[in-house]
Amino acid sequence: MHLAVYNVLGQVVRVLVNDFKPPGYHRVYWDGRNTEGYEVASGMYTYRIKAGTFVQVHKMLLLR
User: Against a cut of 0.70, is the pTM above it?
Assistant: First the structure.
C-alpha cells in the first residue's frame, strides 16, 4: 500500500505509508508536517492511496 499527501502543485508533501498491509481496516494519521518535519500551511491538499490495482485520490482541507 502506498499513501501520500500532495500540495495543490502536485508535489509530494509526505509519504505516510509505503509498505505491505494485510487486507482489513487500517487507520493512518497525518500530523500536518512535511517529510522534513516542518508544519505545512493551511490549505487544500490531496491524498492518493494505491493498494494493488486500487487507486483513489481525495481532497482534504488542513485548517490551523
Answer: yes
